Fold each of these.
Amino acid sequence: MKISLNWLKDYISLDESPEEVAAVLTATGLEVEGLETYQQIKGGLEGVVIGEVLTCEKHPDADKLKITTVDIGAEEPSQIVCGAPNVAAGQKVLVATLNCILYPEGAEPFTIKKAKIRGVSSQGMICAEDELGLGASHDGIMVLDTKLKNGTPAAAYFNLEDDTVFEIGLTPNRADGASHFGVARDLKAAYRRKIKQVDVSDFMVDNTSNPIEVIVEDAEACPRYSGVTISNLTVKPSPDWLQHRLKSIGLAPINNVVDSTNYILHSLGQPLHAFDKDEIKGNKVVVKTLPKDTPFVTLDNVERKLSADDLMICNESEGMCIAGVFGGARSGVKDTTTSIFLESAYFSPDFVRKTSMFHGLKTDASFRFERGTDPNMTVLALKACTLLIQKVAGGEISSDIVDVYPNPILNFEVTVKYKNVDRLIGKEIAHDRIKEILTDLDIIVSNETEEGFSCSIPPYRVDVQREADVIEEILRIYGYNNIELEESYGTDFLADFPSPDRDKIQEKVTLLLSSIGYNEILTNSLTNPEYVEKSGIWNSEENVMILNKLSEELGVMRQSLIFSGLEVIKYNVNRKQKNLKFFEFGRTYNFTEGTYKDDNHLALFITGNQSDEHWRSDVAQVEFHDLSVVVYKVLNCFNIGEIDSEPAANQSFEYGLDLSVNGKCLASVGQLKGSFLKATDVSQPVFFADINWNALLQFSGKKLLYKPVSKFPEVRRDLSLVIEKNVTFNQIKKLALKENKKLLKRINVFSVYQGENIGENKKSYALSFILQDEFKTLNDKQIDKVMSGLIRSFEENLGAIIRK
């Protein structure tokens, strides 16, 4: 949400710097996420001044150029070559001085520099309207009618005023802060200053020639509906001041009537809507629901099918507007509109939220109605908007105000005890200061005793309905920073904090992966149900369905991280970024045996080349082992110990491995099936690893024991085995360790060969064996004994042939 500082000053006096105001707002709970400067004209006309043309003579070498001398308030006049046909001596003009940057209409900015034009020195530029970004005209230079001194900044002539805009991260509970007036209320309490109330004393009904009958059939969905008619107005562009106010907070001006409703919306937080009165058939406004699937064309010219719960603003025969959400295409204000019916209502947040979600429509109005507006603001905002429309569009008030409010919404009544204030805040605050804070927040304090008091809270504070809420209000205005830190604290509740810290473990793995070139991604847990159907692996009946889905493409919760990761890969590959390494911590979801389940996973993706092109090395595509070695690094962070590997049971792979400990699979790694790539339009091989994060965290408490480095040397011996193709390295490793685990420290494959020279269905492994005794140096006899035992075991159990 954007809040303009200049606009804010309409309601409260602020002499503090924008940074100081931002700090106060953040402290009160309206967190300022950023500050930006808004300029009515880009560049603010900095370096542009008023000048007076003293002389104007024809250029000797150019028919269309003239040599002028211009007084710009400096010690000496400036000589400027000008090509405008209307330049003449005696004129007051706008001059861009040297080093000034101009931002022309529809063109690139440029800097004014000292130049020679056809041999004549030129020290500035006399400007046309489009060159300053003031309009589109380039017929000639701007000639001013002013008595301002030469050298006066152009910004002063045009009354340009820079503005500071606060970007506020409004939390869902603070609907009261969704306007400039609402923000001013918080500053009133924080600074203890008066707030400027909205003055509608000039409101006066001119006649009652255009009355509109209002019928509210659903008072639960629409507790209050107010409106008035304005006739004989003229729809046209808004004046500059109004356009700039809206532009400063990112809104595009439309016309003077619509802009007025938007202005009051962002001023007071009360949405309004203007209907073309000629479209109100029967001079009746009926607030009701319409039958399910009734077609309705909204302002964006999209036909939507209504639900049976959509509250509509109708005329005698048809719908005109989706209440609190979006207007209709036919009933809105047009250039030809001369009379309007102006609506200001309070709609139930529940009804608006349901309708907004059903249609996937989010507007400034629905944003506020969903969270809860002020039911006591409708008439005040209606009068303020009416007066503004009369100011910018003319017209006369041609009906009495209609205000249908059968069941007024009462204040929230809460009892507060001082002992609870002290207990929750952790500090005793003077009772007078507590009353002062609450009064400044428009909360009425009554029935005061030594034990506590009663509060009457206005209904626009939808988040303050309990004692704890009132105490929070006291604390946020008193200031969290004003609660002193003590040397020790006690608590009446101790949380069962997990040990070790899961977040720190995840951070450790994140740092490991990022240090070896992997980038973290964060993808949507919502996914396309077609992925499950096309995979042939997961069961669509186990999908967790989204009841209020915004689209079919985001209709279910994901059962795997594969497809959301492939979508990221596709996005990057389509933008010529083909060498990718990604990881993601995420959840998967399924519905099994009547129970919803979710699991935490760590997913790794690699695709493309191992490295970028370089003149010192050849480019090679990534392979299975480029990813598997990273998976082992992650597992080794947990001091797991011996890891078993078997061919992957995971049907997502063309080929792969399952890595397990004590029979529990911790990770699967392999090359993804081509059908998965086809489903997501990925055009290059992708290797994927799925790590069961919850299972892996069970090893996080395992202590790492230090073992002194042996003083005695390692010994390496190599063997070359010819074995059957189906024999895995894991089988060889297990057999070797079973034969001699005491002296055998490490086993490694350093060469693999398959070919005609060793026979069909055979392969050759070249293995290295590292032997070491931690208490003495090994001799040849001991080493030969170990190697002989290994050879015998390989021959007997694997049918291996030892190559000499």
Amino acid sequence: MRVPLSWLREYVDLPAGITGRDVQAKLVAAGLEVETVEQLGGDLKGPLVVGEVLAIEELTGFKKPIRHCQVDVGTANGTGEPQNIVCGARNFAVGDKVVVVLPGAELPGGFAISARKTYGKVSEGMICSGSELGMSDSAADPWGGGGIIVLLPEHRPGADAVELLELVDEVLDIAVTPDRGYCLSLRGVARETATAFGLPLRDPVLLEVAEPGESGHPVEVGDPAACDHFTARTVTGLRPDAESPVWLRRRLQKAGMRPLSLPVDITNYVMLETGQPLHAYDRSRISGAIGVRRATAGEKLTTLDGTQRLLDPDDLVIVDDRGPIGLAGVMGGADTEVADTETAAEGEGAAESTPPATTEVVIEAAHFSPVAVARTARRHKLSSEASRRFERGVDPQAAAAAAQRAVDLLVRLAGGTADEGGTTVAAPSEPHTISIPADHPDRIAGVEYGRETVIRRLRQIGCHVDGQDRLLVTPPSWRPDLTDPSDLAEEVIRLEGYENLPATLPRPPAGLGLTARQRLHRRVGRALSGAGYTESPNYPFLSPETLDRLGLDAADPRRALVRLANPLSDAEPALRTTLLPGLLSALRRNDGRGEHDLALFETGLVFRAADGPGSTVRLPVDRRPTDEEVAGLDAALPTQPRHAAVVLAGARERSGWWGPERRSGWADAVEAARTVAWEAGVELAVRQAEQAPWHPGRCAELYVSAPGGEVRLGHAGELHPRVVKALGLPERTSAMELDLDELERAASGVLQAPRISTFPVATQDVALVVPAAVASAEVEAALREGAGELLESVRLFDVFTGEQIGAGRKSLAYALRFRAADRTLTAEEASAARDSAVSAAAERTGAVLRGE
């Protein structure tokens, strides 16, 4: 909202020394976002006067039309003689009043004016356009672009054009937030200014309004819920040649609007002044009564922008007997557009349907539902000055006064005759009241304002206040955003000054620290970071096509997607069921940017659709929901376990003086899973498995032993080559994903620190020959079980296959470490434990000692 300071002074008697910067500071302190204060005319110097064109000589022999003009500037040039000026513009004639800048002046941008010879003539100054004076650059503006400013005939030659055109001013540019729609008007900003400076306000809406009469244009409101007030005023006998005066044009330009024609300029002016959008219809082009209703399917409307729009049954439209003539609160229709003299003249001979100049208009001032207007504007992608105001809330009590203001201006400026009272249709309504303790703002802000201050501030914003310790507050009609006690408290606090609030540190209640789940998640992140992985958080959204590229079959539970009702992107309409798509996308993106040695991890929630039906009804707000209602909502929620996942590609260990590089592989993914399990104090078991998207021969299933049996945590290994190709990943990319919540449940509880024994270790090595199909993890489990309590660790340090072993067999060499907590083991005890471990392995896996 652009607010000229000169216009603002009409409603608030600001002291003469107050500048735009002073007003900006006060409004910012009151909570308004005043982005800039634009200085107009500050670099304009020298004589700028009104001139009357006495004669025009057309110069020939040049590439473009040039005119040598004699212009009467009164006594402004010191001689009283006409000025000789060369000008190339063609939009003025002899007898027109124009704006002339004389030699010695300086126009905006540092453009100095002097007498000089050009096109064979001496030019003593310049006839100015709006763009040269910094008024408007729009070619569609009659005073903008390259067109010369042609003034109304009543102005006297030699008069000061700087004052006449209000070229020197300050304009405040305010970013109005959605909750302060009343500030999209001079009335609203003036109220805030008057309050900030402690000055009285001259409310432009407080004027005498004619009582509704029987002679007004008939109005029928078919949807009172969407249009609770509609005022129609008729003005006849308008002069077709009436033009907007200078002050009206300039105020519209400074406020960022383009002058068009007198009736339209007046409706825009009143909208800026009062905040009430208006619309002017050519009465001769309206058939029957004006109505308000919802559109019917298939109806069409050509709006003022020339676009034919197919209407939706939810659109609120203005109609006459023929059908829609406007989108209510958004934009009028072209069929009832007001036509000025120039527009009508342009159409002469071009088409028989060209309307004559408008001589009688019907002014619409209505209050429409903000929701209805907002949905219509968004549906048709048509945002207008009117819709912006209706969406944020317009004063329903201002419609009649705004219509009266527009009628008065039409009568005064266009010579029209107003109807006796017009038509008003209003739905009955009760004022909204709010009960608030008098000390509520004190408790919210932590400052003692006192009852009198609270009442004074609430009355300053227009509230009606009654009561003692508990106040009954009726917000003003122009503040629909005030709905509860905290809204009123905010008004008191902001007017008293946010800068006056003391800075205090909050006192949080003593907590219980992190939960076991939180501690585990943090330990996992630190452990993976310490192992060389980089955390890569991703958005929790997923495309179903990504699951196809991962090779998941139709029955895979990861295909049970939870789809979003309003996704951020249509390409990813569902919540993720696995962490791998996001991590693999990050890996592919970084590999494409030249980072080929990658190890990424993420811990986060995945979402699985609920198995059973659940209730998604909206809960009541006037009572506590029942246990059954809460349970129904919980049942509808997706399960949200937290997972941990890693992806790897490229070198795991880089080359150097210590040796060649080592490429990452499936074993690194399995080791990452062991790192995560170790943080929970859980011994992870691994077996070979087949699971998409992993390579069937290089996929490990991760599980732990629990009291109820084995619990599968996830999988790790090398990705399938088809998946690598489909996703554009580096060759031999590996990945791991496991369920952290299941891991936590399998943990024994408090993580115990390792116990360090002071007694020596006894190491025994065994080499066992087993069938090639037997997994080393199965042999290791048998050794652990057979060795008993003296076994401290088992490590596989060699795998050998060859003719010495035999076809279909392999040799596994393990280092067994034995230690007792209370004594030094004898050689016989260590050997006995070793033999027991070998016997258990032989019994469970068919292993035999190598060499036997």
